[in-house]
Amino acid sequence: MTRDDPRHAARILVVEDDRSMRDVLRFALASGGWEVSLAENAQHGLTQLAAARPDAVVLDAGLRDMDGVTLCRRLRSAGNHVPVLMVGGRARTEDCIVGLEAGADDYLPKPFDVGELRARLRALLRRARNDPSDGLAFAELRLDRERHGVWVGPGLVDLSRTEYLLLELLMRNAGTVLHHATIYDRVWGYDFGPGANSLRVYVGYLRRKLGEAGARPLIRTVRGVGYVLRDPEAVTTPAGRATG
After folding, report:
1. CA–CA gap between residue 228 and residue 221 (Å, rounded)
2. CA atoms within 13 A on the CB side of 110
């Protein structure tokens, strides 16, 4: 079997410096049918990433030798787009935002339910397997799968995996208002409920990156509903009023 075969047991790297938590994660993931490798600190994690090429990483945000946020930033700046589920010791919104902004694909605060951990990891792996096609274009935007970004006119904007999938979904459905739950299901593969803020955070990232590259405000908010990609001169939709 190849690594792209759906029967392939995904390889998960756990980077966690607390031994008891490492054991919990190893048992939880192995029981879920995955091959699990362990790294006891950030440096060991970097070595494992280069040698084993895992399908996904469960990364502790509070590593002592190099915190998980810094490690995640290093991976993304080096062009490594392996799916990362970051686990943190605090559930504060700002901690989640910092982790996501560093390039993590998802953030799960401790203590967590093992079932939710597995569900989120399965969602990340499904997204990684369903690599979207490129060639999509809307207004001044053109997706580039090979470079994992989007062209805004003559300039290429680098995107994280989640940013890319979110923009790809909006571009495929340009002009159609997408409900929050639909976007969570299509991009994250899991609806985290009304209290989740990952979508709002990532829409903010996209708007900032596209705006800095010279794009017009194409991603519109439909209050109480979701988001739509449309020409900025059009301010209303059948489902509600679109705002910036």
Report:
1. 7
2. 14
DSSP 67: -
Number of domain units in the chain: 2
Amino acid 87 reads: V
Q: Tell me what pLDDT residue 206 has.
A: 94
Listed in order, strand segments (DSSP E) in 126-192 are 137-138, 141-144, 149-152, 155-158, 178-179
Residue 57's pLDDT is 96
Q: From CA 111, how far away is CA 109, in angstroms rounded? A: 6
Residue 73 sits in the same domain as residue 159: no
For the chain, the farthest-separated pair of C-alpha atoms sits apart, in whole angstroms, at 56
Which residues are 35's β-sheet partners? 11
Which residue shows structure tokens 């006119």? Answer: 153
Identify the domain containing residue 152 by its residue range.
137-243
- Could you state, in chain order, the average pLDDT of each consecutive group of 10 residues for the chain (244 residues)? 51 94 93 93 90 91 91 86 87 80 88 89 81 70 86 89 90 91 84 71 93 94 92 54 52
User: Which residue from 28, 35, 45 is spatially nearest to 10, judged by alpha carbons?
Assistant: 35
